[in-house]
Structures are given as structure tokens and as C-alpha cells.
Known about the structure:
By secondary structure, the chain is mainly α. It folds into two domains: about 20-190, no CATH class; about 195-393, no CATH class. Helices cover about 75% and strands about 0% of the residues. The chain has helices at about 25-45, 50-75, 80-100, 110-130, 135-160, 165-185, 195-220, 225-245, 250-260, 265-275, 280-300, 305-330, 335-345, 350, 355-380, 380-390. Helix 1 runs parallel beside helix 3, helix 1 packs across helix 11 and helix 9 packs across helix 12 (about 305-330). The longest helix has 26 residues, at about 195-220. The chain is globular.
Amino acid sequence: MSQAAPARAPRLTTIMREGERVTPLELFFDLVFVLALTQCTALMAANPTWEGLVKAVLVLGVMWWAWTGYAWLTSVVDPEDGLVRVTIFTAMAALLVVALCVPEAFDDSALLFACAYGVVRTAHIALFIVASREEPELRRSVVGLAGGTAVGVGLLIAASFFDNGTQGALWALALALDVAEPFFFGAEGWKLVPAHFVERHGLIVLIALGESIVAIGVGSEIGVDAGVVTAAVLGVVIAAAIWWLYFDVVALVAERRLIKAKVGREQNEIARDSYSLLHFPMVAGIVLLALGLKKTLEHVGDPLDTVPAFALLGGTALYLLAHVAFRLRNIHTLNKQRLVCAIGLLALWPLAVEIASLAMLAILATVLVALIAYEVLRFSELRARLRNQLLHS
């Protein structure tokens, strides 16, 4: 009589993604990232100096890289799978702790920030390892990413035991390592669902814009008068212009470019460059703009200080310059009007520290509306044709 084969221990597996739409769980995850953005603005607002600005951008950078890692992950695995769902909930809890630590990320909460951040990144790598069990090329890429991630988290933990320049240098090195990793380990092994990947990044731009609206509300807490109402309306005009500049045509063209790219290295490199990399200065620019809006609402009749003035104009300029680079990467042409507009906004910086912040806000709104009006009129036929083709393709 033959003996039954010994039972094998069940293997951890994940279900690979099939749908193209962003799921409610992914949106839920992104809502935690909203707090992180709000905390970065609060960090700069509490310390409106060059040092405070640099620290906030470093914090935003490391958190952005964690977020974009999950965008890649959920474009490979089904986020509604049981194992994935529980792991993402764990990562959300850790990300919430990270966000709570942001105001003291370079001080008393530095070690807690680094450890919680390590949990966020470890959960991401663990799911990717499980998902790549039957995918040798993906597994090689994940192993490379895991090594770089471990070093990056280790640098943040080490940084918590230092202060001033050494601490900042270790943070900068950790962020630089994150940005460089995809270039060292190649793009061939990664996988993604293009439409999902594009939608996920579009939604994070919306979330960042939501932070600019929140900044208006926070800045108006001193009271509501005619000046505050005017500033709030102008702030909405600016936020609407930022939305228009991205979602009217740019996002549609970029989505088609990614979908039509050859699956594999070409498509992955476009996703890496256009979304993981170039969307960061877009989001960072919006967060800087939020700081400028908040400070304007606090004192509409006074000039902005040097750093908030730079945040207002430089943040908007950074957003526009990211669009210029985005277009160069995707369709290899230069968006001259947005480049000129970005340079012009930077040239207005000395004026912003001399005139009332409300007046500067009106100038910024006028410039952005004029830019949109120029593009709509100058490229009306092309814009209409593109939108018709892209929306109905």
C-alpha cells in the first residue's frame, strides 16, 4: 500500500493585477499621503527659512519615493488580494506614523521617523518579492531595489544620531540613492498597467492641489475680511490654473505615449522618467505654492518674506519647468511659452518682497490665466483635435 505524499506547506502568493482602474484601497492609501503633504507645508510654515525649506523638500522626497514604489507595486499585483490588502494596511499605519513625525523629523522624532519609514519600505519590498516568485527578471530587479532600499533606510537611521550638516547630508544621500537605483538595476524586469499607472499619478497631483486649498483655509484662520476673501478667490484661480495646465491636454498626451510604447524596457523607462521622476517636481512645486498661499492669507496687506515669496513664485516655476521636461521626455519638443513663464515668475521674486502679498497673488493668477489663454487661442485647432482623439480613443 503506497504512502500518501507529505503535505506541502502553503506558499505565499499574490494575484497579479488585471484591471486598469485605481481601486478604493489605493485611494485610501493615498489619503494617508495627504497628511504627509500637509505636514511638509506645516514644517516649512513653522520654520520659513532656507533651512526649513530644504528639510521639507528632503522629507517630501523620501516619502514621494515610498509612494511611487507602491504605485509600481499595485500596477503589478491586485491590491484587493487578501495578502496585499493586509500588507498595505500595515504600510498605511506606518506611513501615518511617518507623517506625524514630519515636524520633528530632524529633531526628537528622527529615529522614530526612520524606523516607521523602514516599515513602509519593507512592506513594499516584501510584496514585490512574493509577486516576483514566478518572474525571474522581475525578481532580479526587486532584489536590486531591496539592497538599495536597505542602504537608504540605514542612512536615515544613521542620520537620526547626528544633527545639522551631517544629518542633512545623510538624508540627501539616502534620497539620491533612491533616485539613482532604477538606473543601476535596469528597466527590463519591471511590469506595469499603463492606464492604471497614469491615473494613479494624476490622482496624486489632485491630492497635492487639495493641499493648496487646505493651505488657503489654514491661512485664513486669523479672520475673514475683504482682503482674505479676495486672496482666497485668487488662490482658487491659481489652483484651477495648475489643474488646467496638467489635465487639459498634457496628461492625455502622456497617457497615450505610455500606452503605445513597446512593452518592456521602453515603456518602463518612460514610466520611470515621466512619472516617478518628473512628477516629483510637479508635486513639490504645488507644496511650495501651498506655503506661499498660506503665508499670503495670514497677512494679505504685507509683503511676503524672502522664503515664502520664493515658495509662491519658485514653486509655480518649478511646476512649469517640470512640465517642460515632461514634454521633452514624451514628445521631444520644447514648450517655449511655459519655459518663458517660469523664468518670468522667478524674475518677479524681488518684487514679491516689496509689494503687498495680495497684489503679488493677483499678478501670479493673471500670469497663469494669460498663459492658459495664450495656449488655448494659439493652439485651438490642435488642442481640439488632440482632446477629441484622446478622449475617444
